[in-house]
Design brief:
The protein is of the alpha+beta class. The protein has nine helices and 25 strands. The strands form six sheets. The protein has a five-stranded antiparallel sheet. Helix 1 packs across helix 2 and helix 1 runs antiparallel to helix 4. The N terminus is likely disordered. It comes from Triticum turgidum subsp. durum (Durum wheat).
Length: 402
């Protein structure tokens, strides 16, 4: 993402006022200091001087600030009283070395809804499913929230920016026909309906329009796939069994809004996760017991040339708790996510979350019973989006944020 000219933002912010910091050009203060702050520190600095508030509120600055933020794996944790779920915390995992375990799990927001789960992420935005029956979108950093008029007949396949229009769009799967889906979303259909088929649809956030049906022969398999990865302007899903019987990766071009297939690597066992690593598309596969993780990377995207990068043997004896019996099979959840040029292997097991590095070494143990890992990434953003106010039920810094 290219930054706007520094002088443009600086001139608009200061408008002939005294320098932001005496002895330093405003361009240096804005583009070398303020733009590097974390969102919480940036919000605090706005209270120092009015000129700082103007400089850090310009959209061009906020886009550049967002581009500099690290992408952290998203965890979510439930707070319970007895057996009742009271709230959900959205937790970016800050895996920088030297931080204490508690400091790595600092919530960016808490929501007062019960049984909420993050479903998709893009540019600092999160789509949430609530009670498994409807959806909402939020920016946990700016504390903007709005419900979406979608219910359990839909599943979210991915969220993406549509570059030709500048809109954020949702790719969805519906078990109903287009006419029925339109009725569910918007009431009785009073406009020409898309093709009358069960399958995939596009919804533009804020437009109030179910745009169209998109043909996908593997829509049912895609619905059962895991979270999508946005890479090179396309959404990717881990391999599904194509109609021909071959295992293929599903790819959705977010500009043309059409599907295609990509060859998957040939590997034993099952595929767990897709991710971006060092500018390449990556994939993890595991044995049945999930004790050995193989990491594959797409060395050449155009020729679909996959190579085996490494094999990670999990430290089984260290992961097991002391009182755990060794006489039964291992049952744990393993998620592989990228983190600043390396991969993090997160293992959820017996009320704990454990982090393992690419050498198979146990790095950190988080003793948080209710915390669960996802394959989503959160790159915090203070950018305000125009579609939020157009959504019915839109709030800022209000319930369900607590």
């Amino acid at each position: 993402m290219s930054s706007p000219p520094a002088t443009t933002v600086a001139e608009a912010a200061t408008a002939g006022a005294t320098p932001l910091i005496g002895g330093l050009p405003d361009e240096v203060v804005i583009w070398e200091i303020l733009v590097r702050l974390d969102p919480k520190s940036l919000l605090r600095c706005r209270a120092v001087r009015r000129s700082w508030r103007r400089a850090t509120s310009a959209r061009g600055f906020l886009l550049a600030h967002h581009a500099r933020q690290p992408a952290h794996p998203v965890l979510y944790g439930y707070s319970c009283v007895g057996n009742d779920v009271m709230s959900l915390s959205i937790i970016p995992l800050d895996h920088r070395s030297g931080l204490a375990a508690d400091d790595q799990l600092q919530p960016v927001a808490r929501l007062g809804h019960a049984l909420v789960r993050p479903e998709a992420s893009c540019d600092g935005l999160l789509v949430l499913s609530i009670l498994g029956t409807y959806f909402a979108i939020c920016n946990p950093t700016t504390r903007q929230y709005a419900p979406l008029r979608m219910i359990s007949e839909f599943s979210i396949l991915g969220m993406y920016p549509h570059r030709p229009t500048g809109e954020y769009r949702l790719l969805m799967h519906s078990s109903k026909t287009a006419k029925q889906a339109s009725s569910v979303l918007f009431g009785p259909c009073t406009r020409p309906s898309p093709e009358n088929q069960v399958g995939c649809y596009v919804l533009a956030l804020g437009s109030g329009q179910l745009l169209r049906y998109i043909e996908c022969a593997d829509a049912k398999e895609l619905k059962l796939s895991n979270n999508s990865v946005l890479f090179r302007g396309c959404l990717h899903w881990y391999p599904v069994r194509h109609g021909s019987g071959n295992i293929m990766i599903m790819v959705f071009d977010t500009t043309a809004e059409s599907f295609r297939l990509m060859r998957a690597p040939v590997f034993p066992g099952g595929c767990d996760d897709l991710f971006e690593m060092d500018g390449m598309l990556g994939m993890s596969s595991s044995n049945k017991a999930k004790t050995i993780i193989r990491i594959w990377v797409l060395r050449d995207y155009e020729s679909e040339d996959w190579i085996l990068k490494c094999k990670i043997k999990l430290p089984v004896m260290e992961i097991r708790v002391p009182w755990d019996s060794h006489d039964h099979e291992i049952f744990w959840d393993v998620v592989v996510v990228p983190g600043d040029g390396e991969l993090l292997v997160l293992v959820k097991y017996v009320g704990r979350l454990l982090q393992v590095d690419m050498d198979g070494k146990l790095v950190t143990t988080f003793h948080h019973k209710g915390v669960r890992p996802t394959q989503l990434q959160l790159k915090q953003s203070l950018v305000r989006h125009a579609f939020f106010p157009s959504l019915e039920g839109y709030v800022v810094n209000n319930w369900p944020f607590i």
